[in-house]
Amino acid sequence: MSQNDAKNTSKGPNRDLETFPNPNPERDFTIRISIPEFTCLCPKTGQPDFATLKLEYVADQDCVELKSLKLYMWSFREEGAFHEAVTNRILEDLVSATSPRFMRLTADFNVRGGIYTTVVAEHRKPGWQAPELVKLP
Fold first, then answer.
1. Which end of the chain is more exposed for a tag (fewer CB within 10 A), N or C?
2. Which residues are catalytic?
3. Which of 89, 71, 62 is nearest to 35 (CA)?
């Protein structure tokens, strides 16, 4: 791919999630990403829905690249989606791209009609066990 091609592909929203090799695949560690400006459209009214997405995951061999994640999230701006559906779709796409040991996506949607919605979706790789939490004095 030429430099011009690379520049053109990164200018707007798209669903291409890029990854990079986990720098420490022998260790379980948590990656936390906050996405405070997620937007999609209400499928009933066409009005915008705003949410803060919180992504937490334990990578296996691959990590998600942040610029591609930003462009991926931007791609939902003009799409109508129920909160539950869009949260699960994003989780499925991220799991498909990265094959993590564990991944949790929490979507905190802003108030609509006096109701706040929070959707939490999780993926756990078969056989993976979370390390025991260490409590320090």
1. C
2. 42, 49
3. 71
